[in-house]
Design brief:
Elements: H1 7-14, H2 17-43, H3 45-52, H4 58-80, H5 86-109, H6 116-142
């Protein structure tokens, strides 16, 4: 299952007040997806393997599951508390981009993992693009001189 994000809509609203309102649902959606997919191999490895293909190192699959689940829990907590800090934005964007790169390289170019990972890789790219679009909107609102993660970070969060 991949999360589909309308990147064009994220780009269109990223530059205004609505762009800020996309951060919470984006964090909650990505967090829920990561929590579920991270827990899956821990809860029922046979069904995970049936969908994603055989695994040579089950301990490594479980380790990655724990890490992805932890990222998911962090994004869920940040979204639930309405505290989408620059660090949370960076974690969300970097994890989606990193997972996409690995999945698209090894499922597409190298053909070392099951093709189903191409679907997830596409969803991860959409998540990364949505975070980048929201971040670009923040930079436009706050001034282009600062980096993406720092844009809007003044040491205090705006009242919501």
């Amino acid at each position: 299952m991949a999360i589909l994000v309308d990147v064009l809509a994220a780009r269109q609203i990223g530059g205004g007040e609505a762009g800020r309102s996309w951060e919470r649902p984006l964090a909650l959606g990505q967090g829920a997806f990561y929590a579920a997919t991270g827990a899956w191999p821990l809860v029922h490895m046979p069904s995970f393997v049936a969908v994603t293909g055989p695994k040579l190192e089950p301990w490594l699959v479980r380790t990655v599951g724990v890490l992805i689940g932890t990222i998911g829990a962090t994004l869920l907590a940040a979204g639930a508390r309405r505290r989408i800090t620059p660090e949370v934005r960076l974690l969300a964007l970097a994890s989606a981009a990193g997972i996409a790169a690995v999945e698209l390289w090894y499922a597409g170019r190298r053909r070392r993992i099951a093709p189903v990972y191409l679907l997830d890789g596409a969803g991860e790219l959409a998540l990364a693009a949505a975070w980048a679009a929201v971040g670009a909107g923040r930079r436009l609102r706050r001034g282009a001189g600062r980096g993406w993660a720092e844009a809007g970070a003044t040491g205090r969060e705006e009242a919501r």
